[in-house]
């Protein structure tokens, strides 16, 4: 177990057996922000050429910062933040909806929709128009440059990676899923199964409900479920204060573990914060690397596995010893185990070499016996055969 002076795990007597240390999170946040600023200053002073492949709207002073969660076993939503990421009134929003898009355009333009939020939504586009007008790379790049935030109907979110490709999904403008369709009808608390094709054609939700869903998406962060045991969630930017970063890190960690980790804190292996091009700084590490006591092998079982793994040399020596015992007509109990216990590499190599030498001699003797039994052709028969060949020619 790690010394108490360097331990990053906090145990309490009541409540959860593990907690995130706010002081450690704040310390790591300050160190990460300082490192990113120093790195950016060094790069700007040493680099003379401009990267032509980088996006013009990418600002290094506002690089995103991520909280990475690694679990002891496989884990895989939106999480509310005390300090929202997308609250700037100047940020424009592109809303990608299911068809028909005209329905949602009318809802955004209706008086029931909040005017301040409607002013930020500069484009409402349906999935059919995405397929028709934004299949080319230049069109996708233009769409990305024109908007700061992308929101998408959760019914068509799975189709967007294929349609928009890495243009949107490689950067920080990955579409955020929201639910903008009418609630599913229920009977006695159970969902009524819709007819085939009707689930995609559900009516749109009301204007206040859609506005509330959009505000919820803007005030939180998105958890993109991963097929591995590690998940990264955006918690802030490099131009933020360390206190804000630490507050978001703690809120995301607690919500993420409570919602998505089966064993809660006991299923977590570590928590780190990192920038886009920085190393990960630990803010919490588990004392135990296993998730269940059944995953730990006792010393006795480990010794049994070790003894069962007998090498090829030992097997060869044991087989040779058994053959010698049978040839002499005597059976000595425990001789095989004695040889295995007393043998070493030099002795094993010597015995294997002697056995190979005996086998080689046996093969040579057998080959000589075969040669002696085969009759040799006489000189007369050879000369007759040569004459026959000449006549035939």
Please tell me about this protein's structure.
45% of the residues lie in helices and 15% in strands. With 393 residues, it is an alpha/beta fold. It folds into three domains: 148 residues, 2-Layer Sandwich (Ribulose 1,5 Bisphosphate Carboxylase/Oxygenase), CATH 3.30.190.20; 108 residues, Ribosomal protein L1/L10, domain II (Rossmann fold), CATH 3.40.50.790; 63 residues. The strands form four sheets. The protein has a four-stranded antiparallel beta sheet, with helices on one face. Strands 4-3-5-6 form a four-stranded parallel beta sheet. Strands 2-9 form a two-stranded antiparallel sheet. A hairpin with a 2-residue loop joins strand 7 and strand 8. Helix 1 crosses helix 9, helix 11 runs antiparallel to helix 12 and helix 11 crosses helix 13. The protein is elongated, with a radius of gyration of 37 Å. The relative contact order is 0.15. The N terminus is likely disordered. InterPro entries: Ribosomal_uL1-like, Ribosomal_uL1/biogenesis, Ribosomal_uL1_3-a/b-sand. Pfam families: Ribosomal_L1. This is Putative ribosome biogenesis protein.
What's this model, at a glance?
The chain is an alpha/beta fold and 393 residues long. It has helices at residues 22-46, 101-109, 115-120, 127-133, 137-146, 160-164, 166-169, 207-218, 242-260, 299-308, 312-328, 335-342, 345-373, 379-392; strands spanning 64-71, 78-80, 93-97, 121-126, 149-153, 176-178, 186-187, 190-191, 220-222, 230-237, 268-275, 281-285. The chain folds into three domains: 1-42 and 60-87 and 219-296, Ribosomal protein L1/L10, rRNA-binding domain (Ribulose 1,5 Bisphosphate Carboxylase/Oxygenase, 2-Layer Sandwich); 88-186 and 200-208, Rossmann fold, CATH 3.40.50; 299-361.
